[in-house]
Specification:
The chain is an alpha/beta fold. It has one domain: Histone deacetylase domain (Arginase, Chain A, 3-Layer(aba) Sandwich), CATH 3.40.800. It contains twelve helices and ten strands. The strands form two sheets. The protein has an eight-stranded parallel beta sheet with strand order 4-1-5-10-9-6-7-8, sandwiched between helices. A two-stranded antiparallel sheet has the order 2-3. Helix 7 packs parallel to helix 8. It is globular, with a radius of gyration of 19 Å.
Length: 352
């Protein structure tokens, strides 16, 4: 049976409009149309609308103070002078209480909204607009609804999450990600009785948020293949091969950075490595970014649709209960076909 596609119309509500990169406003690429392109390309799959879930799992994966902040900061921004003063109706941080500022001192909550804007964010690219919270929260419901389908007997389910999530840490957002859908899915699978969950991240960029959330845990393994951050790619500070976890999680993290320009050959070799790494787990979460594709504007990797289908066959062959969570992928003309190729491959791999 084709893998069911879990989605929510609410995920279209996030409209980032632009990013601010090295001080320059640029057109946003994480557009609502991504949802519709994927839906059109997966029309042969059963479509399941996400159901609402409470915040219990979400507030274990993310700090409650961060969740509260993200759900309220835009309303606070709109009560301030920013639209009239500078014409800005999106929340854009400009100051960040990083260790460079705090130096071990406990910071006091900023009185000004434009001061608080950077408390739980870590870049200027990830703007918060009128529908951002609603879309991000609906994406979490997509992930949890996919877990429900797997719990009810589906071999696999695909969560059409938008905005993506794998850069969101326990305490904040960045990298066009607000809430970590893959981490929520992994936590919910653990709650459902799966002793060990493997998260395999195929996005072109390292999922520093997912890595951070499970950094000191052995019950959730995190493995990622991505363009080498040492070559200057986001998230810059994380995603290197020497990062393997800490404490009880030592050895439960594996990073396979790839050279710029890598195509199907080296990319699939890395997928094989992560497939072996995931073997022995009791359930699987796939962070399905398709921005490693040759046409995608956001990375220098050169993976084809055949490569994504082959990756699906490899991971599907594990035979694990699986939740596939949408991450990146920004070339509108090809995103849907790439997702469909992976899902078809996953079905084939599971069928043997």
């Amino acid at each position: 049976m084709p893998i069911p596609v879990v989605w929510s119309p609410e995920t279209r509500r996030h409209e980032p409009m632009r990013e601010v990169w090295v001080g320059v406003p640029t057109e946003g690429t994480e557009l609502p149309e991504r949802v519709d392109r994927i839906l059109a390309a997966t029309a042969g799959h059963e479509r399941v609308e996400a159901t609402a879930h409470d915040d219990e799992v979400l507030r274990r994966v993310h700090a409650p103070a961060f969740v509260d902040h993200l759900s309220t900061i835009h309303a606070a921004w709109m009560q301030g002078p920013y639209v009239e003063l500078v014409g800005q109706d999106r929340v854009v941080p400009y100051v960040f209480p990083t260790p460079a500022m705090t130096q071990g001192m406990p910071p006091t909550r900023a009185a000004a909204t434009h001061g608080r804007a950077g408390q739980f964010g870590y870049d200027t690219m990830t703007l918060v607009g009128a529908g951002t919270w609603e879309a991000a929260r609906a994406a979490v419901d997509c992930a949890l609804s996919a877990v429900d389908l797997v719990g009810a007997g589906a071999a696999a389910a695909y969560a059409l999450c938008r905005p993506p999530g794998h850069h969101a840490t326990r305490d904040g957002y960045g990298g066009s990600c607000y809430l970590n859908n893959a981490a929520v899915a992994a936590e919910a699978l653990r709650d459902a009785g799966h002793a060990t969950v493997a998260v395999v991240d195929l996005d072109a960029h390292h999922g520093n948020g997912t890595q951070a959330i499970f950094w000191e845990r052995a019950d959730v393994r995190y493995g990622s293949l991505h363009v080498d951050p040492g070559a200057g790619w986001f998230p810059h500070f994380f995603g290197h091969a020497h990062e393997t976890g800490a404490g009880p999680g030592e050895g439960a993290t594996r990073n396979l950075p790839l050279a710029e320009g890598a195509g199907d050959g080296p990319w699939l070799e890395a997928v094989r490595g992560l497939t072996a790494y995931a073997a022995g787990a009791d359930a699987l979460v796939v962070s399905l970014g398709v921005d490693a594709a040759a046409e995608d504007p956001e990375s220098p990797l050169q993976v084809t649709a055949d490569g994504y289908a082959a990756a699906g066959r490899l991971l599907g062959s594990l035979g694990l209960p699986a939740v596939v969570v949408q991450e990146g992928g920004y070339h509108l003309d090809t995103i849907g076909g790439l997702v469909a190729a992976y899902l078809d491959g996953h079905e084939q791999g599971r069928a043997g």
